[in-house]
Amino acid sequence: MTRISEFNATTHAGEALHVVSMENHDADSAFALAFVADELPRVVHWGRPLTQPRTLVSAVDALRPQRVSGALDETTWPSVLPTQAEAWTGEPRFVVRRDGVELFCRFVVTDIAVGDAGVAVTASDAEQGVEIIWTCEMRDSGLVRQRADVRNLGAGSLEIGKVELGFPVPADMTELLTTTGHHLRERSPQRQPLTIGRFQKASMVGRPDFDASLLLNAGRPGFGFTHGDVYAVHVAWSGNSLMAAERLPYTTGVIGGAEVLAGGEITLHDAADSYTTPWLYGSFGEGLNEVAARFHADLRATHARWRAEHGIADKPRPVILNTWEAVYFEHDYDTLVRLADKAAASGVERFVVDDGWFGDRRGDTAGLGDWRISQDVWPDGEHSLKALADYVHAKGMEFGLWFEPEMVNPDSAMYREHSDWVLMPTAHRLPMQGRNQQVVDLTNPQAYAYVYGCMDSLVGELGIDYIKWDHNKYVTEAVSPRTGSCAVHGQTLAVYRMFHDLKTSHPGLEIESCSSGGGRVDMGILELADRIWASDCVDPVERADIQRYTSLLVPPEMIGEHVGASPAHSTHRATSQEMRMAMAFFGHLGIEWNLLKEPQHDLDLLGEWVHAYKEHRVDFEHGVAVHDDAADPTVRVDGVISADGARAVYRFTQLTTSQTYPAAPIALPGLDAQATYRVRPLALNMASGEPFGEIGNGQSELGWWNANGVEMTGEALASYGLRPPSIHPANAVLFSVTRV
Question: Which of 231, 306, 463, 666 suits 652 as a labelling partner, its CA being 20 to 30 A distant?
């Protein structure tokens, strides 16, 4: 619970000073703002709770810079929304234009409202007719989030160009960690120093995209998952956005972000209009594990509130089989019934029919947007899609169906009848296509009603329990023919509305957010979606880091992690079944595999792993995800610790051969240092005779790799650790840790 304290004092210069301090001792987090005279607030503390928070009244005198030669009369000391009126000379962060003329605002605070969760600050430039309401909250997770509402109080229209919020970080946070990527290789880490200047990553394709950095992290040089102070920001928005880190010669670093708005996209015509920025989230911790844990806790609490408000009972994450890599577009009743039988026998609890069930959709060139069941593939009667859904339900499984509601093929009845329902830059030119698709203008009420109506009807008609919602095309040159204005902002809000309305109309319906894999992963969509598809690549070697860095933001139970075929369809890399299953074990387990083509031995082994997953999934859904900073770049150590700290499962992965042979001892982070634990192989590893059979290369026994294991303290396991088994590259093993 957040405790808020307020303190009043006077600065050395005789100015009125008001400090608002927010502390959450359960989350070990604190955040404090200082208001000097009538100026916008400045952050004077972000970190652990202080023993004497009232001493923060001295922070202004302690931190305010002196005037220096060759600059303005005041040296830049950025507020929460710095402008040139307060000596900010970096990238413009508040850009507004009245009737086309840019305004330079000097905001005066007119009200400070302190509530249970945080503070709301009203400030205005009365002469120029611009008002902002800046809100800052501390969450139960220890996350801090901020946003701003902008209002037009003057005569004439006010165009919003940019509202970039930020958090200052301590002066020794001088290394940045972001991620980059592309299709089939999302979340690839990259580091660089935070030097004087501006580092910016922008997403301009109507979604965060593969190259997006889920978090922009600034920390002490060399920080990792388990060590080093680190501060992180995230923009909770599924449209165009940016994240940036900036230093001036006069300031320490500022990290933050904003929605990216096109010219004319947001115009406020009068006082009744307003623009609200996305939430900018901030997290800090000793290492990335703690930073990520705050986001995980916040998302879990958000979804728990939704379920409670809508009377939806908690349930374990169902094991999924998705038909895409099993049959692609080759749908027919008999094949999918046989696949459903194999799925149920393997322990699958949710059967999802992917692309190809509707209209003329026999490939990816036609039919998208025609959301009616194809009579060619699924004729009415005993071999209908309804009959398949009923069959799946009768087998005790949930039924899921694929949609791509935001897109249309030009070769479709929808487009031929309503070509004006597509975003396009001019009346006579479409945007460049991607995957034979264009983007449906969901800001058009008629288009929205059509798409929503089709989905709503099919959910009821078929008894759909789960929607796999895909989004494959970049949203470019996005102008609405209906309004003539850029539409990414409105399109994003329409998607949020459709998610919300479908789930509200069909309590218990779950929706997965897929976007050519991991192209749309952010807190905006995560608050509505029940799961994300991390990547179209299910090659477990590639997934090792894709999943690891996706978990900086997303809790394990919301990350779709599937067991696929070997060789992998996306890379043609061959891997062992053990590796493929171990890599899918910690997330929301699924199967992306044609089980009809596999020998019974492999199906039996799959069933054993699914059963083992079910034994541990409650811990994966509520526990703490951890990763270790192994010195050896060829290995990965990942784990999930139960919420009460009594149990854990860790995975050791040997991605490639190493300079060290056998592998060096590994540390197991996150355990109670004072507790004693028994460490032993997961039963299914021992039952299969691994790791000394097909996936191992050790020539003698490993002393602890047996049913008895070893007993060690959490402190010892986190320092010198223990020796992992010697295994071939592109393999992984699992072991359990239990408090004794």
Answer: 231
Whether the CB-CB separation of 201 and 509 falls below 8 Å is answered with no
Q: Give the pairing type, strands 280-286 and 229-235.
A: antiparallel
Segment 553-557 mean pLDDT: 98
Instruction: Taking residues 306-320, report their average pLDDT.
Output: 97
Mean pLDDT computed over 531-537: 98
Bridge partner list, 458 = none
Task: Give the position of tokens 């190493």.
Answer: 658
Mean pLDDT on 18-47:
98
689: left (phi over 0), alpha (psi -120 to 50) or beta: left
- For 612-653, the pLDDT digits (tens) are 999 999 999 999 999 999 999 999 999 999 999 999 999 999
**Contact of 373 with 360, CB cutoff 8 Å:** no
CA distances (Å), 615 to each of 3, 621, 624, 683, 734, in order?
38, 12, 17, 11, 14
Residue found under tokens 């699992």: 734
User: Could you give the dihedral angle defined by the CA atoms of residues 607, 541, 650 and 510, in that order, rounded to the nearest 10 degrees?
Assistant: -60
Average pLDDT value for residue range 354-359 = 98
Q: Please provide residue 195's backbone torsions phi and psi, each rounded to the nearest 5 degrees.
A: -100, 180
Interval 686-702: pLDDT, tens: 877 778 778 999 999 99
Q: What would the mean pLDDT of 391-408 be, rounded to a whole number?
A: 98
Amino acid making up residue 468: K
CATH number for the domain running over 627-737: 2.60.40.1180
CB-neighbour burial class of residue 62 (10 A; exposed 0-12, middle 13-18, buried 19+)? exposed
Say which residue the tokens 């590259």 belong to.
729
- Residue 113 falls in which region: left (phi positive, over 0), alpha (psi -120 to 50) or beta: beta
Distances, alpha carbon 65 to alpha carbons 76, 78, 156, 194, 252, in Å: 8, 11, 38, 21, 11
Cβ burial, residue 311 (10 Å; 0-12/13-18/19+) = exposed
327, pLDDT greater than 80 = yes
Determine contact, residues 459/502, Cβ cutoff 8 Å.
Answer: yes
Fold of 76-299: Beta-galactosidase; Chain A, domain 5 (2.70.98)
Q: How far apart are CA 393 and CA 400, in angstroms?
A: 10
**Is the CB of residue 487 less than 8 Å from the CB of residue 442?**
no
Query: What is the CA 360 to chain-centroid distance, rounded?
Result: 34
In the prediction, which pLDDT does 563 show? 98
Neighbours of 461 (CB within 10 A): 12
| 3-state secondary structure (DSSP) of residue 710 | strand
pLDDT at 694: 84
Distance, in Å, from the CA atom of 92 to the CA atom of 653, rounded to the nearest integer, reads 45
Q: Are 653 and 712 in contact (CB under 8 A)?
A: no
In tens, the pLDDT along 490-519 reads 999 999 999 999 999 999 999 999 999 999
Report the greatest alpha carbon distance in the chain: 85
Helix axes 385-394, 445-462, angle to 10 degrees: 50
Rounded CA separation 45/7 (Å): 14
The pLDDT of residue 684 is 86
Please give the pLDDT value at position 459: 98
- CA distance linking residue 341 with residue 430, whole number of Å: 45
Exposed, middle or buried: residue 659 (CB in 10 Å: 0-12, 13-18, 19+)?
exposed
Domain ranges of the chain: 76-299, 627-737
Predicted pLDDT at 685: 85
User: What's the whole-number mean pLDDT along residues 102-112?
Assistant: 98
What's the pLDDT band for 1 if we cut at 50, 70, 90? confident
Angle between helix 445-462 and helix 488-505 axes, rounded to 10 deg:
30
Residues 714 and 149: their CA atoms lie apart, in Å, by 47
Q: What is the pLDDT, as a whole number, of residue 144?
A: 98
